[in-house]
């Protein structure tokens, strides 16, 4: 059964140095508050996993938390580059960053394989691309029934997956809706999970169209309203597009970024 | 006749290519502008599909990102990311894919990964996203990108997305389900694959462009169609709707 914890104790208990940490949420419901807590607790040597690293991984990478990044599209959506990510790859600042990169379809299916308890997933993808040669977690496989050449992607089983959702109920069931990305798969694929939520409610509305993660599939729940800012939670908040645009200039310069970290993360609890 | 920019001609030309399409898998940026313009102009029923899982999105302003709340609120259905790729894109259910890139070569292969070497890149770009499967899974795809010697290159620094490989029967050898890029539209002209070699051939010049100008902005020895035409100028309607789309998103951004 999911345990209700503070953000500080959830991260202290469930995110360890060297862990494979998935932080999911496709543009929507990105777990920024949890990411900042990981930075504050100065975790090191993490393997971060996210289809779209977004600002959250840019911040974790710039803060020196990550040794490796598993991803499929590393840009600032609608704006341009992720400068801390680029600085790590291009200049090894603050340290070198190992990459395992995929296509969205490939990485999503790696989560599906992990959630399904299978060693790999199969899809029609990667054919003729250089990504096939650069990733150790993609290979060719021949269909035993038709002889077709297909791609296999290795299952992904994070040590811990972190997501943000709209609601949990008192029993610890989690409910999210709108754009739900690969959050369900990332939680089911992981050994442990932390879910930050906008609101804790007595009972869910009778709407089964939302994704529900039963209490016994979740490790820790944290009440963290606004915990996905500057992304958004449908029904609760709007995406702060200005923040994403401002990040472009703020993150270009190492010192400006470090000052931002100092003021907005290290010296600001629970933000 | 109104004044217009090369970018506007490019976007309008891309929107026109969606004539007759039922559904379009849309990347953010130029492709999203062109697809939304097509919906506003001649294809009100065009089903826009974004990789965030929003199927049938009907945005009233240009989305800044593929996961904008506006896309989810206006969609017919919102599905998970594994589902959008596995159930919707992979079986060829979406007619047309619309893509941009940092580099393209003469066989319409695309690079969105690195400039320079992979291990020590001069510029690290965002990477693949949904593009490789959009280009292989959709029955046809449209590429929209600004043209210069830096973007239209002899050799890609990294092949992120397979177009026609090294030409000829390369797609057939990989058994890719879709037919591949049917057109490449730049701010200077329109290029279509040669029926046998699959080399992208200049078939239409945008107003004001010449073959010499296009050659100068192409990193390979350009083939020009014997039936070269001029891209029809954007109509007043096309320009008005395109500018309204941009004005709508600019107004929203300063809210």
Structural commentary:
- The complex is a heterodimer of chains A (271) and B (255).
- By secondary structure, chain A is α/β, with parallel strands linked by helices.
- Chain A has two domains: 3-101 and 157-257, Glutaconate Coenzyme A-transferase (3-Layer(aba) Sandwich); 104-154, no CATH class.
- Chain A has helices at residues 7-14, 32-40, 54-62, 83-91, 104-116, 131-134, 183-189, 241-250, 254-266; strands spanning 3-4, 20-23, 46-50, 66-71, 75-76, 80-81, 98-101, 120-123, 138-142, 149-154, 160-169, 174-176, 192-201, 211-213, 220-223.
- In chain A, helix 2 runs parallel beside helix 3 (54-62), helix 3 (54-62) crosses helix 4 and helix 5 (104-116) packs across helix 7 (183-189).
- The longest helix of chain A has 13 residues, at 104-116.
- Chain A starts with a strand and ends in a 5-residue tail after the last helix.
- With 255 residues, chain B is of the alpha/beta class.
- Chain B has one domain (6-253): Glutaconate Coenzyme A-transferase (3-Layer(aba) Sandwich), CATH 3.40.1080.
- Helices cover 29% and strands 22% of the residues of chain B.
- In chain B, strands 4-3-2-1-5-10-11-12-13-14 form a ten-stranded mixed β-sheet, sandwiched between helices. Chain B has a two-stranded antiparallel sheet with strand order 6-7. In chain B, strands 8-9 form a two-stranded antiparallel ribbon.
- In chain B, strand 12 and strand 13 form a beta hairpin.
- In chain B, helix 1 (6-16) crosses helix 2 (30-41) and helix 2 crosses helix 8.
- The mean pLDDT of chain B is 94.
- At the A-B interface, helix 4, helix 5 and helix 8 of A face helix 3, helix 4, strand 9 and helix 5 of B.
